[in-house]
Amino acid sequence: MNTEIHIPERILLGAGPSAAHPSVLAELARPTIGHLDPALFPVNDAIKKLLRYVFQSDDSLALPIPGTGTAAMEAAIANLVEPGEKILIGVNGFFGMRLAEIAKRYSANVETVNQEWGLPILPEHIELGLKNNPDTKVVALVHAETSTGVLSPIQDICKVVHQKNIPIIVDSVTSLGGEKLLTADWDIDFCYGATQKCLGATPGLGPVNLRARALEKLYSRKTPIATFYLDLLTVHKYWDAERMYHHTSPVNNLFSLLRALQLVKEEGIENRWLRHKKNAFALRKGLDVLGIKSFASQEYELNTLISVIIPDNVDDMKFRNQLYDQFNIEISGGLGDVKGKIWRIGLMGYSSRHENIVKLLNALETLLITNGNLKNKVNAVKYSEEAFSN
Ligand SMILES: *Cc1c(COP(=O)(O)O)cnc(C)c1O
């Protein structure tokens, strides 16, 4: 590729991006065609259909927004909240805080329901928040909080929110394609994700799904949407029969996303959730033997991102650099309040594989021993293998 800059091949087991399947990467190298070329339209239509499948949604608006998860996040807020309107946001980690920050910048009247990092947002928290803020127009929260490895029970939270007949925005960036998520059954109104986490594609697109309540809110706006680029009232016209130009669609990313979505369909979404669950279980068994403890509250642990407390006397940066240099493995450190306290191990999409768990456990064990943090070999891999065979 580049003769001067060396780009290593890493095993991506951090908070994202995760690995993309080779056939997904190959699609990026396909010759570019125009975004208004009729030859592209079947690609667009197939993407819309398969996005509804991965969201487990109904016949609603689904499209990929150019930009990463944060662009989809910003689109959700910018389109559903008008200046001065009250939005109630559940905050139990870094990405909940980001939602609140974005909402402030779009001049929303922001109220938060806060939970300690490592704990979930529960229906009763939102219920109380709504009782204290009866003028709330939209609720937003993160399904899978990637900064802590915690899953919040969205299904029951949706029920509480809908008693008020207002829409809920759900961040499914680290759950879409990896954790059980039923957008239609759970009645999520605006759900968004990202391609580089559990969908097994490269970074660059943020899928969104808007169902009836969200569309109603969008179409009844009294003020213009403050962002031109993420204005879904016009963006969707490119994805409809109109095929109207709004911005140049990132065509090669679309080829690649289509392949990734086809792989999800071929595997089956339920099988995919199960794979993530089994692999997380096996990794946890191995980590346990190494004396590495979980950070997230047990009942609410994610299968796509395992958060662990950094063992005593381990130098966070040095250790993670050793993982890069000696094993080509990436795991992530903590964000914000838990920086230097936790590691975040992602088992997302194509990265969530048995062979990666073996490589990581062997690397962790070797480094803990050579750095003097672990006295004897414990053979963590063996215990994780036993978990696999059960
Ligand atoms: C990664 C992430 C985002 C932001 O996505 P980017 O692709 O980094 O822009 C938003 N929310 C959650 C829960 C995430 O994990």
Description of the molecule:
The chain is 40% helix and 15% strand. The protein has helices spanning 22-28, 41-54, 69-80, 94-105, 123-132, 154-162, 212-219, 232-239, 251-267, 269-289, 316-327, 354-370, 380-389, and strands at 11-12, 61-66, 86-91, 109-114, 136-142, 144-145, 150-151, 168-171, 190-192, 205-210, 305-309, 329-330, 332-333, 342-346. The longest helix has 21 residues, at 269-289. The protein has 2 domains: 22-266, Aspartate Aminotransferase, domain 2, CATH 3.40.640; 269-389, Aspartate Aminotransferase, domain 1 (Alpha-Beta Complex). It is an alpha/beta fold and 390 residues long. The structure holds pyridoxal-5'-phosphate (PLP). Pyridoxal-5'-phosphate (PLP) binds at residues 16, 68-70, 73, 95, 142, 146, 171, 173-174, 194.
Distinct compounds present: pyridoxal-5'-phosphate
The count of strands amounts to 14
CATH topology heading of the largest domain: Aspartate Aminotransferase, domain 2
Q: Please state roughly what percent of the residues sit in beta strands, choosing from under 5%, 5-15%, 15-25%, 25-35%, 35-45% or over 45%.
A: 5-15%
Low-confidence stretches: none
Radius of gyration: 21 Å
- Helix coverage percent: 40-55%
* Individual helix count: 13
Q: Please, what is the CATH homologous superfamily of the largest domain?
A: Type I PLP-dependent aspartate aminotransferase-like (Major domain)
The main β sheet shows up as: 7 strands, mixed
Strand order of the largest sheet: 2-10-9-8-5-3-4
What gap, in angstroms, lies between the N and C termini? 44 Å
CATH class of the largest domain: Alpha Beta
Number of domains: 2
* Category by helix and strand content: alpha/beta
**Which term fits the overall shape?**
globular
Give average pLDDT, whole number.
Answer: 97
CATH architecture of the largest domain: 3-Layer(aba) Sandwich
Order of helices and strands: EHHEHEHEHEEEHEEEHHHHEHEEEHH
